[in-house]
Amino acid sequence: MSKRILSCMQPTNRLQLGNYLGALRNWVNLQDEAATECLYGVVDLHAITVPHDAQALRNATRETAAAYIAAGVDPKRSYIFAQSAVPAHSQLSWLFMTQTPMGWLNRMTQFKEKAGKNKEKASLGLYGYPVLMAADILVYKATHVPVGDDQKQHLELARDIAQSFNQKYCDGEEFFPLPDPVITGEATRVMSLRDGTQKMSKSAESDMTRINLTDDADVIANKFKKAKTDALPIPANDAEGAGRAEAMNLIGIYAALNDQSKEQVMNQFGGQQFSALKTALSNLAVAKLGPITARMNDLMSDPTEIDKILAAGAEKANALASPTLDDVMTRMGFWLR
Ligand code: AMP
Ligand code: TRP
């Protein structure tokens, strides 16, 4: 195996278009590459770093796994598992916590965004979250991590942790490969439909800011119709699009959904009114997301199937993760186990 792919999503609320275009779609494509082994986790332990409801978490964990499968992750070729079913993640995370300077975590911009104004009330778990993420990746010695652009900084931290462990406990030998981020496509950072300066997010207050993977055709059409644009015609090139975040966001979404470049989309729609692009975008999104939604609903109607897939995935993930944890513990001086 030359490549080991690992990526994860949090089971918080429903998946949105940014999750799909920024990450999930690339996960599916990576399965087709030769000599790759793919592991896709539902990181339920990450989901409890902010206030959560137990029953909602249970459902969301299943629903997130269903979304992976509905989007094309094939449980026969990839391992799908819940993070909490593989204890080595948390165990390695603690070991890493003790080796990670607070200064590295203080630089993480996502903590600042998520903690908001009231940093004192944010949990220690939210602060340490990127260390758990590093453990998620390194416990499998993953080589490639397909994510959206917002995870770049967390990936750099994982690389720093890997490098520091290699130096401290392995005489500089590459015990942990340094994981490469895979951030590809025309929509690595999908923005809110209402504010081009904000990322599209499943936890944003207003549902009108995002397209959920479970939205039906009418809801999708209405959200694109009401999406914020500006008074100028659709830009025909990058220069005309400069400083027009909302316009470029819709163009990026169209390009990604239609497997085109932004340039091609601007060539086609440049100079027209936004209503033309919005109508085309709604039709395209319904055509691409509709089958995913239908398959998801299907899967959710019989959770035993998903539960079986998660159990098989966890078994394999545990088998891969345990030897790494064991090795790390030995190198750090533990022997009573
Ligand atoms: P999360 O919803 O935070 O668990 O994110 C799961 C994956 O989706 C990560 O790889 C993110 O980088 C990606 N992602 C989330 N929101 C967006 C977005 N608005 N644009 C592109 N990728 C995103
Ligand atoms: N932090 C990621 C996010 O919010 C989710 C995540 C947790 C992840 N562990 C990971 C992504 C490991 C890639 C690899 O989107």
How would you summarize what this structure contains?
The chain has helices at 17-30, 44-47, 54-71, 88-97, 102-106, 109-115, 124-138, 152-169, 217-225, 238-241, 245-257, 262-269, 274-300, 303-332; strands at residues 3-9, 36-42, 78-82, 144-146, 180-182.
Please give a structural write-up.
With 337 residues, this protein is mostly helical. It has helices at 17-30, 44-47, 54-71, 88-97, 102-106, 109-115, 124-138, 152-169, 217-225, 238-241, 245-257, 262-269, 274-300, 303-332; strands at residues 3-9, 36-42, 78-82, 144-146, 180-182. It is built from 14 helices and 5 strands. The chain has a 3-stranded parallel beta sheet with strand order 1-2-3. Strands 4-5 form a two-stranded parallel ribbon. Tryptophan (TRP) binds at residues 6-10, 43, 46, 133, 136-137, 145, 147, 151, 154.
**Percent of residues in beta strands:** 5-15%
Main sheet: strand order: 1-2-3
Distance between the termini: 30 Å
Low-confidence stretches: none
Q: Percent range for helical residues? A: 40-55%
Overall 3D geometry? globular
pLDDT averaged over residues? 96
How many β strands by DSSP?
5
Rounded to an integer in angstroms, the radius of gyration calculated over CA atoms is 21 Å
What's the main sheet like? Answer: 3 strands, parallel
Helical stretch count?
Answer: 14
**SSE string, helices as H and strands as E:** EHEHHEHHHHEHEHHHHHH
- The oligomeric state of the chains shown is single chain
Bound molecules: adenosine monophosphate, tryptophan
SSE-based structural type: mainly alpha
